[in-house]
Amino acid sequence: MQRNGRFFRICFILLATILFTGCGDKKEHREKSPEKPVHQTETVEKSTFLLKDGNRTVTVKSTDNGFEFDVEEPLVMLDFFATWCPPCRAEIPHLANLQKRYAGKLKIVGVLLEKKHPAELARFVSGHGINYFVSNTPDNMLLASKTADMLHQPKNFSIPMTVLFLEGRYFRHYIGMVPEEMLANDIEEALKEVE
Read out DSSP for 121-173? Predict the structure, then answer.
């Protein structure tokens, strides 16, 4: 009997470790806006990215200190993820809650970092209750590379990686799964700067 209890504790610890760390070798962290403009890379020549979610499109243009998004919301959260990544899947309900809670103020843009057939992605989106924009275009990888350069991250950064922009300016980023409360707190902090 005691052996079964030990086995279940070990399994629980392993499962918790997998869920609360990113898919990669980086630990979760949160960073404040840099004091000087973010780094511009020479490795990604493209400066305009077309993100598509079915018939909807978000155009992203690189700027000196972030990106210009053609959306109405003052806050944009880019979430770089893959469907096979357990922490990425685990954060989906929290992102959906935030999109609902901050409708009109926040636009969450899921940036898929794998090739998926549109029908397969549509099943994933509906099966996981995703209520936010999910891009599935070749520009996703280019935007990921540009963002990694901007944040001084390696090209093969850990996922999920979430980046919050305030009126196009870099505000904060997170690597690994982050508690919903932390994201909400940072969204509230960013919204104070808008008002």
Answer: HHHHHHHTT--SEEE-STHHHHHHHHHHHHTT--TT--BSEEEEEETTEEEEE
